[in-house]
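Task: sequence design from structure.
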């Protein structure tokens, strides 16, 4: 299981001589940050990174309070959050990935099909058992157990939750009206239970027969979890992977912090719960030297470091998005 704290350095002497920059936020980003920042540190002994995987909501709070040098969130800061930050903020696309629908059904290792509407109805509490006719119809020949569905969600403020509830809002008018999209929402299903971070949701699904939950793909792969083939808007049933998430990203080439949703797109090869995550930095850092190091790390992460993404279940940022990220970072006022 992944942990929530990342620190690294080449040697003890190098660490003591280096400047440590700190960040906090998205658990969605953590597996990629963990590997990429370690690789970065191997060739840049002047800086170490301490990243706390506490969820997008917590990351925005710490970033706004200026207790960290950068934040990370799977949904960009909105107008109210930017106002609370007081100083101008730059939001940079940094990660691209998908969220799988994980499940724990004894005897059913793979191949479960779930439609968009069925997932929405499960999370609305309208479908409460695995042998409900709506699920059975989608899976002819599969012996589904007469087992209650435990609906697992994030208990903390989460950009992963925002992406998932944005998807549900697109699929289900009832969800959009009753619940809506957000980093934290009121979960209507009576069987709902919450876990902290992607790792918490993954853990609850793994230990709870009958459970279902939305989990970032890297956590599914690293924990060897089972996840469903999910129907997209065009009617195709797809797993989240590099190709299907990249296809979703390609539908919005001009992605920005004010126009960022790539859920439930119309193309037949697009995975429907896909999304970007964003690094948050101040345009004019209070400490220009530390700010220069943050800029240096983030420029590398958004460009040179992107091929690392494929090695652990993420999708490299499209080339045009890498260029946009680099251009945004150029606005930082540092020495």
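Answer:
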């Amino acid at each position: 299981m992944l942990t929530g704290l990342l620190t690294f350095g080449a040697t003890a002497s190098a660490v003591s001589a280096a400047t440590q920059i700190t960040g906090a936020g998205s658990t969605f980003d953590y597996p990629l940050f963990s590997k990429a920042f370690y690789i970065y540190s191997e060739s840049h002994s002047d800086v170490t990174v301490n990243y706390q995987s506490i969820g997008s909501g917590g990351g925005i709070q710490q970033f706004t309070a200026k207790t960290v040098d950068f934040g990370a969130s799977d949904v960009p800061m909105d107008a109210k959050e930017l106002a609370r930050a007081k100083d101008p903020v730059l939001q940079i696309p940094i990660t691209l990935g998908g969220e799988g629908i994980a499940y724990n059904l004894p005897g059913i290792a793979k191949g479960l099909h779930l439609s968009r509407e069925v997932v929405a109805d499960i999370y609305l509490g309208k479908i409460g058992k695995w042998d409900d006719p709506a699920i059975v119809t989608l899976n002819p020949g599969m012996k589904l157990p007469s087992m209650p569905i435990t609906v697992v969600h994030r208990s903390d403020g989460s950009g992963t939750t925002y992406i998932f509830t944005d998807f549900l809002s697109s699929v289900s008018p009832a969800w959009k009206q009753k619940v809506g999209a957000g980093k934290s929402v009121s979960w209507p299903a009576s069987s709902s239970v919450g876990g902290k971070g992607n790792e918490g949701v993954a853990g609850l699904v793994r230990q709870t027969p009958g459970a279902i939950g939305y989990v970032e793909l890297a956590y599914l792969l690293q924990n060897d979890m089972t996840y469903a083939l999910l129907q997209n808007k065009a009617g195709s049933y797809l797993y989240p992977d590099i190709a299907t998430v990249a296809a979703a990203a390609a539908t919005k080439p001009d992605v920005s912090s004010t126009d960022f949703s790539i859920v439930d797109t119309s193309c037949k090869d697009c995975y429907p719960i896909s999304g970007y995550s964003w690094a948050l930095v101040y345009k004019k850092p209070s400490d220009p030297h530390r700010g220069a190091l943050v800029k240096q790390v983030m420029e590398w992460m958004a460009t040179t470091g992107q091929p690392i993404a494929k090695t652990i279940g993420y999708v490299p940022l499209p080339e045009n998005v890498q260029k946009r990220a680099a251009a945004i970072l150029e606005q930082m006022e540092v020495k």
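The first strand starts at residue 5 and ends at 7.
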